[in-house]
Amino acid sequence: MAVKTAIKVSNLAHTVNANTGDLTILNGINMDIKEGESVAIVGASGSGKSTLLGLLAGLDVNTSGEITLYDHAFSRLDEEERALIRGQYVGFIFQSFHLLPSLQAIENVMLPAELIGDKQARKTAESLLEQVGLSHRLTHYPNQLSGGEQQRVAIARAFASRPKILFADEPTGNLDEGNGKIIIEQLFELNASQGTTLVMVTHDNELAKKCDRHLVMSAGQLAEQT
Amino acid sequence: MIGFSLRLMLRDIRSGDIVTLLIALIISVGTVTSIGLFIDRLQLSFEQQSANLLAADRLISSDDEIAKDWQVKANELSLKQAQRTSFRTMIFAGDALQLSNVSAVTDNYPLKGAYLIDDTLFGTGQPFRQPPQQGQIWMSSRLASLLNINIGDQVEVGEATLTVSQYLVRDPGASSSSFAISPRAVINMADLASTQVIIPGSRVRYALLLAGQRDDLGAYKTWVTPQLDNGQRWRTPVQKGERIGDTIAKAESFLLLAGTLAVVMSGIAMALASGRFVKRHLMQVAVLKTLGATPRVLIKVFLTQFSLLFVLGAAIGLAVGWGVQGIISSLLSGLMSTALPEPSVSRLWLGIATGFISIVAFCLPLMMRLIKTSPMSVLQPSVKIEHNTVLIYSIGFIGMYGLMCLYTNGFLLPSIMTLTIVAIGFLVTLLGWAVFKLGRSLTSGATSGWQIGFAALYRRLLPNLFQLLVFTLIIMLGLILLGVKSSLLADWQKQLPAEAPNHYLFNVQADQIDHINTATEQLDILKSDWYPMVRGRVILENGVSIQTLYPEDKGEPELYSRELNLTWSDSLGQGSKLVSGDFNAEGLSIEQRVAQEATLSLGDQLTINIGGNVISLPITSIRSVDWGSMQPNFYLILPKSALQDYPANFVSSLFISDAKAQSFYKTMSQFPTVSILNVGDLLKQIQTIIGQLSEAIQLVLLCILAAGALVLLASVSATLEERLEEGALLRVLGARKALVQQALFVEFGALGLFSGLIATIGAEASLYGLQVFVFKSQASWHPLLWALGPVIGICIISAIGLFASRTVVKVPPMRLLRDF
To answer: Could you confirm whether domain B526-655 is CATH 2.40.70?
Structure first.
């Protein structure tokens, strides 16, 4: 059976308004990401990696070209519909964790499952936190956790809605080497066990090497590294 | 989704953001409710006290008998009713006779208040709530002395023979029968027919007195008003004695102003709290969006949360407001002569409306702003949110304006306040920007508290300008209230000196003046000058007849509507001031308000008919008259040459203490033709009310200032995080505690000084507007405010700022930095 295409990008370009006039951030990007693949996007700071990640996840609207996520073309969807697609298909891990400070660890993890009306949200969250080794930290607030622990909560949260695609933006960028390694291990373990497609932006070559494919971003253009 | 929203909200409560918003809402609803209820209770109380002067809650006076269906309607509305018929007639006692003012009243008269009667001649009286029984008559001590009779003696009123059973000290409705200056007597309505004094053509005044619930009285008024003809008037207690009406109206304006300022403060508190809420939720919303929350879901989440917030805030706010007004009232109860009436539950809608408008005006626009947060900002925090700040603040502003209009039931006060706030906004932005920039350029570097403080002011320019605006507004509101309170109190105290005249002598003949002067000197009684009085009526204005100018009396000014008392005088007299023209010129001197009503100015010619002779004179001066001085005052003063040939009688006013009253009345019984008008009771009532009002407005002022201090604290807390972070950084870099404290003091002190100064300018300008347009009094300068404003600004803002920021120097910097 042929493997499904999770993300398809054709002729993608993105321009923003800057003080000095229009600035082209992405230009002529084409790519296919198959279901279950892990893809690392690497590149220098300011090369447009995070912008691309945001567009792939439907967080912003590209100026031209088309992004299709499981046959849903973003250009034909409004903000409401894009959010529904995210809730259905997408999980996120951020460099600066972005846990909600007013929620306990378990509540943060429950959030995406609750948003899609999952009655088992608490059970799922407990199980995921156990998998990332934080079953003893369920009721702690983000400011009571170390950076590594916060990112592990974020990983658990990313998997809580059982996403088909996981987007990770520099997941180890704010962590020391030891914590970074733990995070990577847990991320790839969960990714493998859940059969998720992983798209990750990173500076870390070691981390990139763990992925099936490497894409290099340079001056708004994307090239496959073999 | 509701369950999810509530769970999210409950979790949010722990973080304190929702709590801040809830507290702001509770303060808004609570302040408006407590002041609203308190004002309502005061108004009810004044109305009840004034009702004692009217002997009823409402009264219809009429030249004709009260129609039967009016009484039926009053019954239908469950109103209590009584009737009074007043007329002038001769009372005979043996050979003696005296023209008297007699009231015949029904058994349940008075509906409000009580008679004061005594069985001793010129006694001080005991309260009694029923009128004389059939066959009896009560008469004033003066009338009894004029008739030379005592209790138990019989007198004839028309065809009826009645027995004197008490001396009448005070008739609760006396003032409502237009200060009849003949000696007074009261009889039972059951005796009226047997007197046979009322015949067709008699001058009789009928009154229907009503008492009951406000709503029922309102319904009755609506029903009866269209049926009233020219000789019939609907009267309320507050109209009684213009002076009480005026005093209460001013106090109500003050309390209304206080309430309006409370609304503004609540608005500021809500704006601050919701601003903080948005700031803290921007990232949360962006994260929720990345997790799949659609705008529709977010709208539902926030609408559920704000609805619950409204219900909670309104319920707690109402309870707090109810409690606070109870405390204010109980604090005041020791000072009030009568217990305050219970507050009416129907007034609570004001608090509920405040809560609702606050949520709609302040929270919903911000919710829309939050929902527009781009999910991209989780990856790129610099992503701008698309929103229209002007629109958001405009909605808040319009909401606040609407609330003020609702609160004051008018546009004048809210418009003055809104204009002032806008003007202050411009001033603060312009001057603040200039001063902060200048301060920064004069103190560049970062080695002293001054330099760090000014650097902080300039760096956080926008938040600081906003904070400056909040400080300025709160201080200004406090100063305005203080200014109005001081002027009102001073005005009232001036109005009623302890020895304000409380009696008038009328109908004094020229040859009696010396005798009366001797008598008052012997009794050591203070007396004003004697003013001659000649009756006359204005018939032409600039040669045109009054009937032509005002056909069918429509819109006819008071000056032309009746016969006037005219006088001549060499001097302006106490309590009068020359506004324009020359008082000593050979022409008319007219009182300012009367001239305005009749649109007359200097040079206009009036023609006056005096006893059949006609004289024409130009207006040569305009006077302002302080009617509160209780001195004899006149609408028109003519040159002596114009009046001296007419027979005049004289009028004077006197202050007679209770101790001297009896001897004075006895002395005056030698002059039976002289009429004495006693306004002492009315004055005492006014003095009591003024005393209570003064206490009440001071308490309200304190409450508002306390609420203001809370808002200031909230405002400082709103920017606390940044300050804490900066302070912690400074301390990590080795700054001593003293340096951090000095920097904070410079920052807050400068904000305080500056806001105090601008607030004073704003307060002075607002006070001018309020005095001229709202309180209709003389505008005055308030030097005290200019000293107080900046000092209060520095002291309070620094104290609150340093108190709120005390963690910066107390907590280890590591802990502070970890929290960010």
So the answer is: yes
